[in-house]
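Exercise 7. Given the encoded structure of a 139-residue chain, write a plausible sequence.
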């Protein structure tokens, strides 16, 4: 039903924090975003120093990075309207449905048409698409 529970992540500027507690207190930094380059970096430490590249965004696709220069690797997620599909291979072929975005609620999706499944989490406030895709890539 999308009933809010404990906070899972806190996005603060260009950092994605793991949440601590039900009120969404900021915990250690998990990812660092570079929206201008469309790159998501692993955090080198809990304070948010930039580590190795994790993902790069190319249009409506999130692609796994390889190496310190973010050489594009396999496709992770593909956005198609309000549906998010698993990416398949380096050419980002559409795979199985992974998530369905319904307003501020993110549902699990299943099947080739991304049919709506259980509610996974609710977004509170504005969330950049790059941050949302990085969070979803972890599921």
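Solution.
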């Amino acid at each position: 039903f999308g009933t809010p529970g404990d906070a899972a992540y806190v996005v603060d500027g260009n950092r994605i924090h793991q949440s601590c507690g039900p009120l969404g207190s900021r915990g250690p930094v998990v990812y660092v975003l570079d929206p201008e380059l469309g790159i998501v970096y692993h955090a080198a430490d809990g304070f948010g120093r930039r580590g190795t590249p994790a993902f790069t965004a190319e249009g409506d696709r999130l692609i796994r990075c390889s190496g310190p220069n973010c050489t594009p690797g396999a496709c992770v997620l593909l956005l198609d309207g309000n549906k998010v599909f698993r990416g398949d291979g380096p050419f980002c072929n559409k795979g199985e449905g992974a998530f369905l975005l319904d307003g501020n609620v993110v549902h699990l999706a299943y099947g080739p048409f991304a049919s709506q499944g259980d509610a996974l989490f609710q977004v509170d406030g504005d969330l950049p698409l790059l941050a949302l895709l990085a969070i979803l890539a972890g599921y």
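Remark. The chain has one domain: 9-137. Students should compare their own answers with the one above.
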